[in-house]
Design a protein that fits this description.
Layout (H helix, E strand, L loop, with lengths): L7 E10 L5 E9 L5 E7 L4 H15 L5 E5 L3 H4 L1 H9 L2 E5 L9 H13 L9 H19 L9 H7 L5
């Protein structure tokens, strides 16, 4: 458990159906301190480019000055030469889960679980644009702003007090 932001970031992919036998992929990066999603991107391909593009979004938003531990699973996208080069250029230290052991990346897995439970599985999507809008609404308008993170001892009443909403 990091004691401040930008010490440990974690990432993974999930798929989202957009019709029969068709999927798009969401790559998300979370700051392990706040549990906030600091970068995300949707693509029709689950490749190293999606991983690199998402990492560049996080770097541009956070502009880290100190080395950061960057944790992922053993996916080929996260071990690709282009991704490793990006990590090295920005002093991000690669950390990988044990093969076949998702518990090492539990925070990101739980993020995807609730994203799907609260948003994705309640809708039917027909295009990547619909998925992007849905992800934006959930991540940027709810999850990062109003979703209490028990890891930081935040309660629902504190969230509403901060936003001037009666609880």
């Amino acid at each position: 458990n990091p004691n401040s932001p930008n010490q440990v970031w974690t990432t993974d992919f999930t798929y989202i159906s957009i019709g029969p036998k068709r999927h798009v992929y969401l790559c998300a990066i979370l700051d392990l301190y706040s549990r906030k999603c600091i970068a995300w991107k949707v693509s029709d391909r689950i490749d190293a480019k999606l991983a690199c593009d998402t990492l560049e979004i996080a770097i541009n938003k956070r502009k880290p000055k100190e080395p950061i531990i960057f944790h992922s699973d053993q996916g080929s996208q996260f071990k690709s030469a282009s991704f490793r080069k990006l990590l090295d250029e920005h002093q991000l230290l690669a950390s990988y889960s044990k093969p076949g052991y998702p518990y090492d990346n539990a925070v990101t897995e739980v993020f995807f679980k609730y994203l799907k439970q609260r948003e994705i599985n309640r809708r039917t999507y027909h295009s990547i644009q619909e998925v992007q809008l849905s992800c934006f609404e959930y991540i940027e308008q709810f999850y990062n702003n109003y979703n209490p993170h028990s890891a930081n001892n935040v309660t629902l009443s504190q969230v509403f007090r901060v936003t001037n909403v009666e609880f």
